[in-house]
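Hi, here's the filled form for the chain we discussed.

Project: internal
Contact: R.S.
Residues: 354
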Amino acid sequence: MRVFLDKIIKKHDMSINLLSDTVTKPTPEMLKAMMQAEVGDDVFQQDPTMNALQEKVAKMFGMEAALFCPSGTMTNQIAIKVHTQPLDEVICDKSSHIYQYETGGYAFNSGVAIKLLNGKNGKITPELIEPAINGDFDWLPKSQLVVLENTCNKGGGSYYQLSEIEKIRELCLGKGLKLHLDGARLFNALVETGESTLDIGAQFDSISICISKGLGAPVGSLLIGKRNFIKQARRFRKVMGGGMRQAGYLAAACIYALDNNVERLKIDNDRAKKLGSVLEKLEYVESIEPVYTNIVIFNLKKGCTASQFVELLNQHQIASSPFGPQSVRFVTHLDLDDNMINQTIDVLKSIKAI
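And the returned structure, exactly as it came back:
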């Protein structure tokens, strides 16, 4: 039995998980912070660690209040719900997470329409947004909310510069539109641009940030905005079943992540770029999307599907994700190290024909 267990442990230790940055697990230091957390009942707003997290994040972005939720999908959906009324319309890029991966929640939860723009690498511009704003006709939904994603998952981790966001903000103010940021991987962008959270916070009516991706917490996203906005958001969180009791254990993990794991995201971004530089030279790779942060998307030549290639990597104990019929995605994160990246590169180079 012991020999069998040793084999299982060894296999687990050797595995390289490039599937997503959501696979990260708490470090011993993070677990220690969780176990030492002072907790209370968060539904009554009496959990001191949760209160501290929400105050910390609101201050970080220069906003009045924040609300912890189990997932980024919930924070995004609550933001849409608070900002809109039924028969309104949300404007976003066609590859946005709120459209692609949130089960049509904008329609189910909020009764709103959605208008998809054909941006570049997941990014939209004022020139695309302005003509998409509906006129005041009773046969059209009312354009009410613009949603940006930063970084853009399906855009290969692309990100907005502050100057680009400022132009969109100016348009939204002039047209009476609210502006929400799905900032699931925002900190991966900020370690590249060097821009501050305060500057980003000043541009948006609400922001969602995820702590359970590259920052390494096991659970949690936060919605940030004005005090009255968050008060209403708290009601919607409750009706969605998101009211939690001793959630301070999770909040402690998020505080630890924000205090210790932001700057190291540059390591993840650089490792992704290293993988990208290797992939673009391999004969079986048709093309590779620009690598901006910690996401690598590459397209295979005909002859092998993405699913077949992912299975081939699985045989080498490397997990990855099909991202289309011929496309594969790698995501780097804090549970990887240089040896794992180098081992992945060796495997990729060893594949001669597919």
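Let me know if anything looks off before we file it.
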